[in-house]
Design a protein that fits this description.
- The structure is a single chain.
- By secondary structure, this protein is α+β, with helices and mostly antiparallel strands.
- The protein folds into three domains: about 170 residues, 2-Layer Sandwich (Beta-Lactamase), CATH 3.30.450.20; about 100 residues, no CATH class; about 150 residues, Histidine kinase-like ATPase, C-terminal domain (Heat Shock Protein 90, 2-Layer Sandwich).
- The protein is built from ten helices and ten strands.
- α9 links the parallel β6 and β7.
- α2 runs antiparallel to α6, α6 packs antiparallel against α10 and α8 packs parallel to α9.
- The chain starts with a helix and ends in a 17-residue tail after the last strand.
- The C terminus is likely disordered.
């Protein structure tokens, strides 16, 4: 089914619609303006001829007519003088026919003597001339008095000039001049052609200017469309990432709950099997005097047991708590974790921290500390004597800025697949900590190939210390 013109037009770009409409308007304006200018040129040429004829009448006819009142027949002398002017004289080349009308519509003189004495109804142009106005027009010689002229010329320029004996006297007659239109039409056509050239040049210049503006506007619109499309793609990608992060956050929350439960069981077991047992032993020693008057309590052994219990409690508390890092930068937090591991283990860690920001959310710093601490402790515990390395740097810009951290050792490595369900909570806890902040956790290890832990943590992650629900940076 063919498209309707309006439908096809509506499918065009705004700039093309503008060009089509403006082109149509310019074309119509060019035709209308050129035609109007051509008519003005023609009118000006006719008026100029009328002005010249008026000068003839004022400078020549008034003197020739003398005291003629316009009511009687011209005298022979006046008749002969007019013949000398319009038949035998120099005006013969300018005026192809001359008529002198009286107020009753009678031709009192004509350069074609056969028309003299004829009477015709007054035409509007003749009436206006008797009213004192010079009239001029290009005539197709269709009037009743034009039959002799119609047989010789297709068109003539007719000029009606009021004739007065003096400037302040009434009109006594009307002089009708007929001029050939050959030269006049040539001048008019030449002037009209020049005017059309100017109109066309002006129209083309206006079109080119509008085309340039439309092209610039179209380029701007296209650029803006591309930008909007790019932003839309980025927004869709961000929405997809947001949705994935929401799913990841939910999964991480559920897993963290399970891990916390396991941790609580582990802590309970550590308390029961360690400090609780030792304190119970101490209480039993205190209960021994009740068995007999000769029983004695070994205070030193009780003190030793209690000190050991206190040390166990401190160790458990140290594992649960975190040294004060509120005022530290992310880089200093990582160095703090490295130094704590070095102090407790006696190992040396190769740390390389590259231009981290001075400020970061507390949740980010806690996670950085735990990732470094747990990864290095695992290296010390499972890869004794290996080289421990810590690398940290920034990645991305703006809202995607993140901290990249890598902890590696060249120890024996291990198979990560059986780690699930093994009862080991360190690495699973680290993975969930990172995921809760919208980050990415990677474990790269294999038997005989060492172990590398990598984490990418968004810098703009929410701080759970202030809002436990805002742990997704994109949400």
């Amino acid at each position: 089914m063919p498209r309707l013109p309006l439908q096809s037009f509506a499918r065009l770009s705004i700039s093309r619609q503008f060009l089509l409409v403006s082109s149509a308007i310019l074309l119509i304006g060019m035709v209308a303006g050129g035609s109007w200018l051509g008519r003005q040129i023609e009118t000006a040429a006719v008026n100029r001829a009328a002005a010249i004829a008026a000068v003839y009448a004022e400078s020549i006819l008034a003197a020739q007519l003398g005291q003629w009142s316009g009511r009687e027949i011209l005298g022979s002398d006046t008749h002969a003088a007019l013949d000398r002017l319009f038949i035998d004289g120099p005006l013969k080349r300018k005026v192809v026919r001359f008529k002198l009308w009286d107020g009753e519509g009678r031709i009192v003189y004509s350069s074609d003597h056969a028309q003299q004495g004829s009477r015709f109804p007054l035409q509007p142009a003749l009436e206006a001339a008797f009213g004192g106005e010079v009239q001029a027009r290009i005539s197709r010689l269709e009037q009743a008095d034009n039959s002799p002229e119609r047989s010789q010329w297709p068109t003539l320029l007719e000029v009606y000039v009021p004739v007065r004996t003096a400037a302040d006297q009434p009109v006594i007659a009307v002089a009708e001049f007929y001029h050939s239109t050959e030269g006049l039409f040539g001048d008019i056509r030449s002037a009209q052609q020049r005017s059309w050239v100017l109109v066309v040049i002006a129209t083309v210049a206006a079109y080119l200017a509008l085309r340039g503006l439309a092209r610039r506007a179209d380029d701007t619109i296209v650029d803006q469309q591309h930008d909007l499309q790019s932003q839309l793609v980025q927004l869709r990608a961000a929405l997809g990432d947001n949705e994935r992060m929401r799913t990841q956050l939910g999964e991480a929350g559920a897993r963290t709950t399970a891990l916390n439960e396991e941790l609580l069981h582990r802590v309970a077991a550590d308390l029961h099997d360690g400090p609780a047992q030792k304190i119970a032993f101490a209480l039993m020693r205190f209960d021994e005097p009740a068995a007999g008057p000769d029983s004695t309590v070994d205070s030193r052994s009780v003190q030793g047991v209690l000190r050991s219990s206190l040390e166990d409690l401190r160790n458990i508390a140290a594992g649960l708590g975190l040294p004060g890092i509120d005022g530290l930068s992310p880089g200093d937090t990582i160095l703090r974790a490295v130094r704590d591991v070095e102090r407790l283990s006696g190992c040396t860690v190769d740390a390389d921290i590259d231009s981290l920001p001075e400020e970061a959310p507390l949740a980010l710093k806690i996670t950085l500390y735990r990732v470094v601490q747990e990864s290095l402790n695992n290296g010390v515990r499972h890869a004794p004597g290996s080289i421990l390395r810590v690398r940290a740097r920034m990645d991305g810009q703006g809202a995607t800025t993140a901290v990249l951290i890598e902890i590696a050792d060249d120890g024996p490595g291990f198979d990560p697949d059986p780690m699930e369900g093994s009862g080991r909570l360190g690495l699973p806890f680290l993975q969930e900590r990172v995921r809760l902040l919208g980050g990415v956790f990677e474990l790269d290890t294999a038997p005989g190939h060492g172990t590398t832990v990598r984490a990418r943590l968004p810098l703009l992650s929410a701080d759970p210390a202030h809002d436990q629900t805002r742990s997704n940076p994109a949400g």
